[in-house]
């Protein structure tokens, strides 16, 4: 009888785990995803690697690419609507994007492993003011493998005017850290 009870409890946990993971989206504690502390890591000019070519359809039906912003600093932020830390950092990204836009800094969001309807709802709520590539299959994230773990969201990269990865943050970014790093890279 005891073995049967243990079996039923384990079966119940297994079924509950599958049912709670709608659409294959990660849940809290999912070890496939990498957490970070959000601190900006700045790379010296000699350590910087070229960013891969990034292009894709945006949530609003246009196309966004790094190549379209050649010669400018670009902030690339990987996020998803189901990601709590992504939601928490959205106002920070929006504010820094608005503050630095007039000086030629471009922000591009990369919506990763998400449902398009959920991502659109998130963007309608947040009104970030910059384009977001819809990267449901994760191709853009995989292109940065070695720089950013493909499962680390939120993650933020700062691409310098020469198209190289100048800085990164794994986890939700802080306002002062992001603004100071963007300004430093922009002023190089």
Which helices and strands appear, and what pairs or packs with what?
Layout: H1 2-19, E1 40-42, E2 55-57, E3 63-65, E4 74-79, H2 84-100, E5 106-112, H3 116-126, E6 132-135, H4 139-143, E7 155-159, E8 165-170, H5 175-186
Parallel strand pairs: 4-5, 5-6
Antiparallel strand pairs: 1-8, 2-3, 4-7, 7-8
Helix pairs in contact: 2-5
Question: What would you note in describing this structure?
Answer:
It is a single chain. The strands form two sheets. The chain has a six-stranded mixed β-sheet with strand order 1-8-7-4-5-6. The protein is built from five helices and eight strands. Helix 2 (84-100) packs across helix 5. Mean pLDDT is 82; it is low at 2-34. With 188 residues, it is α/β, with parallel strands linked by helices.
Distinctive features:
alpha/beta; 5 helices; 188 residues
Largest sheet: spatial strand order: 1-8-7-4-5-6
End-to-end Cα distance: 71 Å
Quickly give the structural class. Answer: alpha/beta
Count of strand segments: 8
What is the residue-mean pLDDT, rounded to a whole number? 82
* Tally of helical segments: 5
Strand percentage lies at 15-25%
**Considering DSSP H and I runs of 4 or more, what fraction of the residues is helical?**
25-40%
| Mass-distribution shape | globular
Q: Report the biggest beta sheet as strand number plus sense, adding barrel if it closes.
A: 6 strands, mixed
H/E order of the elements? Answer: HEEEEHEHEHEEH
Low-confidence stretches: 2-34
């Amino acid at each position: 009888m005891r073995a049967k009870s243990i079996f039923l409890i384990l079966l119940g946990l297994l079924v509950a785990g599958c049912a709670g993971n709608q659409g294959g989206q990660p849940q809290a504690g999912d070890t496939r995803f990498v957490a970070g502390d959000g601190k900006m890591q700045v790379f010296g000019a000699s350590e910087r690697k070229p960013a891969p070519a990034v292009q894709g359809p945006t949530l609003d039906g246009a196309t966004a690419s790094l190549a379209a912003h050649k010669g400018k600093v670009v902030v690339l932020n990987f996020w998803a609507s189901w990601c709590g830390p992504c939601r928490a950092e959205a106002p920070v990204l929006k504010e820094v994007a608005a503050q630095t836009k007039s000086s030629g800094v471009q922000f591009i969001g990369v919506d990763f492993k998400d449902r398009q309807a959920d991502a659109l709802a998130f963007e309608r709520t947040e009104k970030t003011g910059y384009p977001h590539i819809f990267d449901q299959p994760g191709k853009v994230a995989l292109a940065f493998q070695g720089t950013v773990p493909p499962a680390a969201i939120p993650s933020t990269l700062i691409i310098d005017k020469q198209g190289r990865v100048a800085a990164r943050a794994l986890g939700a970014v802080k306002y002062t850290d992001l603004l100071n790093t963007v300004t430093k890279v922009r002023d190089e």
